[in-house]
Inverse folding.
């Protein structure tokens, strides 16, 4: 395996992680990661059965804890519309 720098992770290690809003409310489960040209995108399944796409940028993804399988995200206005 390739050694990782602090704050880096393999996508396969975070699939299935619980995604929380910054206020601590459970938002959904990370189902997949789309690798795009600009930035990667988290595919999160929310309890209503829909999928929400969260860009893997600092403004949106605030914390990724691989050991606890926990992701904290800021849900930007317009993402749920």
């Amino acid at each position: 395996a390739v050694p990782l720098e602090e704050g880096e992770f393999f996508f396969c290690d975070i699939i299935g992680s619980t995604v929380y809003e910054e206020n601590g409310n459970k938002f959904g489960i990370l189902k997949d990661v789309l690798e795009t040209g600009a930035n990667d995108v988290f595919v999160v399944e929310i309890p209503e059965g829909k999928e929400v796409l969260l860009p893997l940028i600092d403004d949106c993804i605030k914390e990724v804890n691989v050991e606890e399988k926990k992701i904290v995200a800021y849900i930007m206005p317009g993402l749920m519309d």
About this structure: The beta strands are 18-21, 26-34, 41-45, 51-55, 61-65, 70-73. The chain has a mean pLDDT of 90.
